[in-house]
Design a protein that fits this description.
There is one protein chain. The protein is 63% helix and 0% strand. It is mainly alpha-helical and 452 residues long. The chain has one domain. Helix 2 runs antiparallel to helix 3, helix 2 packs parallel to helix 4 and helix 18 packs antiparallel against helix 19.
Amino acid sequence: MDARAAERSQPREHGIPPVLLRCELAAIGGSGLVLAAACWELQRLGNFVETPRAFLVLFTIAFAAYAAGATVSARLRGSVPVTIIVAVGIGCRLIFLPTAPSLSTDAYRYVWDARVASAGFDPYAYPPTAPELAGLRDAWIYPHLNHKTWLTVYPPVAEALFRAVYRIAPDNVLAIKGAFGLAEVLALVTLALWLRALGLPPGRLTIYAWNPLLLVEIWGSGHLDALVILAVVAAALASARGRDELAAVFLGLGTLVKLYPAVLLLLLPGRRRPVVLVLFATVIVVGTLASGGLGAWPVGPIGRYVVDEYFNPGLVRSLVNNPKLALAASFGWILAVAALGGARDLATRAVPMVAGVIVLAPNVFPWYAVWLIPFLAVAPSIPLIAFTGAVAFSYAFFLSDPWSIPWWARAVEVVPVAAAAVAMLRHGSSGIHRILRVLRRPPRPGVSADVR
């Protein structure tokens, strides 16, 4: 169902008794306090890898508070609930900001790559263990690096951003977290504008602003995906305002940081206009040339990362341990969703697209699931919102020695994915039948058989 048509209803505050409205606002505030308290206790744990059981318990409490708050606020309009939502969201973000990354140490690699480049070495040519880099190793950044024998996988524009932060605050993980956190706050503001442009209740902001997975992965671990979220939400806002040319530019910028935003180009309403495709391609070409040329892209290291990394295998890889087949399944899903057409609203089409890319990928990294969250604020799916909480149980990986994800944690992850799949099949069957009818009916002379 089209999000715009479904949600243009009268504000819930209109016609609600004042006592009931006060109760709802109190429920939102109470949920926010519980969420903030859980976040505070989480940051007090310090290293989540060393306290996985406490982490999972507190994360579950945080997610329950988030779900309660989002359930009450999702249809509310007005400045009061938005003020509460933003205040709690910003407060929880600031709680996590000073924490040292532990569940993922990618932020340390960002700083390391910038250090290597600042010392005059090419991070694409030397892994951290290279003898040439022996003089750069220290007791703070280097010990936290993952895959020390692997070359970096980050695109050249991402590396340029690492270096920019490094020039301001060398060897400072907090600085890199703060920079990406600022980008995420801008994404939050942009999402609020997107909701307004679609005429949706601003209370939907809770679905994004309070999500514990986003708080942990962006503000706790400092993942680069914050920049991707900003680019994608900016593109969605531009598209909602009928400016797909600008949306293509934002998607191009996001693709230069991480490849995922490129798939959303297939969902833009104006994707067939030559100017949209040209602008997207121009951004990619100019960005690539400005940051070292095509040869600077770490194609080989990215390929190794896809094939050799093994943490939380996706659906296909869980059944057949073949990462290349899993990657092929992801590409097949992208093409299938793009071909089905359907609603013109970007978020409505992006939810199944992005969800499929995540769960079919060779590995389901929890920080990849944050890609879904802004779209879920516009086109909510209860099973997929639940999935953004369930995927954190992959960190049960740290409960055992040697590390491995227990079967019950995988089951927790699978249940909401299965529920989402059933809902998508029921919703998508009409689109499939429409395509079949069009394919079976010969087009009239001079009339296109395009299913869209």
